[in-house]
Design goal:
There is one protein chain. β6 and β7 form a beta hairpin. The chain is globular, with a radius of gyration of 24 Å. By secondary structure, it is α+β, with helices and mostly antiparallel strands. It folds into 3 domains: about 200 residues, Ribosomal Protein S5, domain 2; about 130 residues, GHMP kinase, C-terminal domain (Alpha-Beta Plaits); about 90 residues, no CATH class. It has 15 helices and 17 strands. About 50% of the residues are buried.
């Protein structure tokens, strides 16, 4: 197979070169009855993993978060079909995945009417080995359901190649969703902007795949750059600024090999507890504002009007909110007193007991920590003579965040705590100023704030972690461009003529 590039960046990552090689070699993983066709054009897009430096799970409470891209990517290769079939192919090895899956666009309808989100989620989750396709083919349904296209004129085949660890806490699913939507945006001329793609990708994950994540992952995958860090206000998806990394400072991820998931019970229960707290506070301050002379209760009521807990300050939480929140509450009792929570991505279970006060406290304090952290990093960049002091301040905030994940959010991990403690012992003298759990917690990847040459220190961290837990941690570092900056590559596939013998 001959692959001719018609459009796009000439400098290609190793991932894309590997994909190109598979096409040139007529790989049976790609070319089969419902796979790619040996001819025609192929659109190639990519989206990066992300390192959550600060903010994490508070994103769904409207927090300020601080995110950077990593040099791991998901690649989507998309080709139009002549029929109405949709086919997803994964090039990731592993017996847990069925390598390909297809169905007709007609399957998204019942008697000519578009199915509901619960129906589509149930369809994709019938078989564990094909549930991965919801992150890819689910995008077609979301584009229809959200009115971005009336109907698809033809089907498509999408092949996904990713070197982002699944369950690594670095947003592998968001990268796949974003890369897919970027490809469909080109294939069907949808003219979606970057933030629309991020929002649609989150809907795919929340409503089709059934994982109740916030939006920071998708925004970073779309809008991230290889040179700066994103400060995002998740209300819902405002990029506040792109922040430079100070001279000789780096952020490094270490994957603990302890897998985590935004579909896990702990993550979901923490999210529900936070939204329960939001509902309780909104009810209390609405009542208080109606009867109280003065406007303090009204001020807090107004701050919560858009359902963002992180619009409460730490002082307001301490002085007016903390005493109103129960330590925990049973779902059934909550229903009787307050009704449903406003979160559309989760459901309260009547018989389950949910911690509330600690979950709200984590979100409010994490938002404040993130803002202080960003200020410290900017100060370290602008005032090199005092950079050590600012880095020390930032590092201490990371350690506080890690403890809060464990003690207040209920999303800690013994292995993560072990790795963070190792990094802390090596400390400043080894160039490591801070370390913390990332993303949804419960395992995954630890973020490290480093200064100067830290290769020996990182080797020591990995060796000590292996000695303590018997696990080979994995360094994930560097930056890739976001999906929007990368754009797309357009390839023309042509079968090579067999040689003529005379």
């Amino acid at each position: 197979m001959k692959v001719e590039q018609l459009y796009g960046p000439k400098v290609k990552s190793f991932q894309i070169l590997e994909l190109e090689y598979l096409l040139q070699e007529d790989s049976p993983e790609l070319f089969f009855s419902f796979g790619l066709k040996k001819g025609g054009q192929v659109i190639v897009t990519q989206a990066p993993a992300r390192l959550d430096i600060m903010g994490g799970v508070a994103d769904y409470c409207g927090a300020n978060v601080f995110e950077m891209t990593l040099d791991r990517t998901a690649i989507a290769a998309c080709q139009a079909r002549e029929d109405k079939n949709l086919c997803a192919i994964t090039l990731r090895a592993g017996s847990q995945f069925k390598p390909n899956f297809h169905f007709s666009l007609d399957s998204l309808y019942t008697d000519g009417t578009l199915k509901t989100y619960p129906e589509v989620q149930g369809y994709f989750n019938q078989e564990p080995s094909t549930a991965w396709t919801s992150y890819i083919l689910g995008a077609f349904y979301v584009l229809l359901k959200e009115g971005k296209i009336d109907q698809f004129p033809h089907g498509a085949t999408i092949a996904i190649k990713s070197d982002i660890p699944i369950g690594g806490g670095v947003a592998s699913s968001a990268a796949v969703e974003v890369a897919t939507l970027m490809a469909l945006n080109q294939l069907y001329n949808l003219e979606l902007d970057a933030m629309e793609i991020a929002r649609l990708a989150q809907i795919v994950e929340n409503r089709v795949a059934g994982a109740p994540c916030g939006i920071m992952d998708q925004v970073t995958a779309v809008a991230g750059t290889s040179t700066k860090i994103l400060s995002i206000l998740c209300q819902p998806d405002k990029i506040l600024e792109f922040v430079s990394t100070p001279l000789n400072v780096s952020f490094v991820g270490i994957y603990t090999k302890v897998r985590r998931s935004t579909a896990s019970t702990a993550y979901i229960d923490t999210r529900i507890g936070a939204f329960m707290g939001l509902t309780i506070l909104k009810a209390a301050f609405a009542s208080e504002a109606a009867s109280e002379k003065g406007n303090y209760a009204q001020k807090i009521s107004d701050a919560l009007a858009d359902n963002y807990l992180c619009n409460i300050s730490v002082q307001e939480f301490q002085e007016r909110c903390e005493s109103l929140l129960p330590e925990q509450i049973r779902g059934e009792e909550f229903f009787e007193r307050y009704g449903e929570i406003v979160d559309t991505a989760t459901q309260v279970e009547p018989e389950k007991i949910y911690p509330v006060k600690s979950r709200v406290e984590h979100m409010v304090y994490e938002n404040a920590r993130t803002q202080r952290f960003i200020t410290a990093i900017k100060n370290a960049d602008e005032d090199p003579e005092r950079s050590q002091d600012y880095l020390r301040e930032a590092g201490n905030l990371m350690y506080e965040s890690n403890a809060s994940y464990r003690d207040l959010a209920g999303l800690g991990s013994p292995e993560v705590d072990g790795l963070v403690n190792i990094a802390r012992k090596i400390g400043e003298q080894g160039g490591i100023y801070g370390a913390k759990i990332t993303g949804g917690g419960g395992g995954g990847t630890v973020a490290l704030l480093c200064h100067g040459s830290v290769e020996n220190s990182l080797t020591q961290v990995l060796a000590a972690y292996k000695l303590a837990w018997g696990i080979d941690g994995e360094l994930i570092r560097g930056n890739a461009v976001g999906a929007s900056e990368f754009g797309h590559i357009l390839w023309e596939l042509k079968e090579i003529e067999p040689p003529t013998h005379f």
